[in-house]
Amino acid sequence: MSETSVIEPGGSRTPAPQTYRIHGRSVAGGDAHVEAATVTVPFDAGWNAPSKGLPGPAELLACSLAACLLKNLARAGALLSFDYDDAEVEVTARRQDTPPKFVEMTYVLRVTTDEPERRVKLLHSNLSRFGTIYNTLASACDVHGEVVATPRAAAGATEALDEKATPAVEMFCGSGCSKCAGLRRWLEELDIPLLVHDLTVDTEAAQRLASLGYATLPVLRTADGRTAAGADRDHLMTSLPQLADAVAAARSRRASG
């Protein structure tokens, strides 16, 4: 197989099932679950009611794309002999109200690998061609994203940093943004570990933020992959539990010191 080729399905490997079945159940009030394979997955089926903190149908759909990408990474990794340690993916789904449907799904797949760029592109080509969920969604809306390769040495340095300063907070901001400056000053005064991306000079970070569906600044991202926009501190801490924990810990240190 050449380095520019793609993996064609088939061969002597165990074929994928042609039919999939799950069982779902709900009761009045919004409690619901689906039974898939040997596990039960609860989800929020309530309407016009406060969130119960469970994923809804939209999140489950986004989860399907994430699972498809990760499973096909394992498949393509084996068939292409693509060497990697681990991976994580973030999916953003954007919908419209009339008619109600999803119009765009974007993803950022981060892979810890020392493979060269051409091999990473080859991997991405296979992920976008042979994913059943990927192809199904792509026939109904715009599906696109990127595969970001992180060298093992860089990943190891990040892990060492995280062990010393957890949770790390990424901040996407811009020069001349007063809300960004105020939020950054607050975080730094609390001595919260902060990785700042100035989008006026960091084009890669700007593209990454756009792929996540954000068009305004500032935006924070915590180590668990959660993101939130704006400078309202209460909103940010509600949306980002790890940030809330870090703020509480910082305030506790100050009180005891």
Can you offer a commentary on this structure?
By secondary structure, the protein is α+β, with helices and mostly antiparallel strands. It folds into 2 domains: 31-153, K homology (KH) domain (GMP Synthetase, Chain A, domain 3, 2-Layer Sandwich), CATH 3.30.300.20; 165-256, Glutaredoxin (3-Layer(aba) Sandwich), CATH 3.40.30.10. It is 39% helix and 25% strand. The protein has 8 helices and 10 strands. It has helices at 57-80, 117-129, 132-138, 152-164, 178-189, 203-211, 233-239, 241-256; strands at 23-26, 31-36, 39-44, 87-96, 101-112, 142-150, 169-173, 194-198, 219-222, 227-229. The strands form 3 sheets. Strands 8-7-9-10 form a 4-stranded mixed sheet, with helices on both faces. A 3-stranded antiparallel sheet has the order 1-2-3, with no helix packed on it. A 3-stranded mixed sheet has the order 4-5-6. The longest helix has 24 residues, at 57-80. The protein is globular, with a radius of gyration of 21 Å. The chain starts with 22 loop residues before the first strand and ends with a helix. The model is unreliable at 1-8 and 160-166 (pLDDT under 50).
Please outline what is shown here:
The protein has 257 residues and is an alpha+beta fold. It has helices at residues 57-80, 117-129, 132-138, 152-164, 178-189, 203-211, 233-239, 241-256, and strands spanning 23-26, 31-36, 39-44, 87-96, 101-112, 142-150, 169-173, 194-198, 219-222, 227-229.
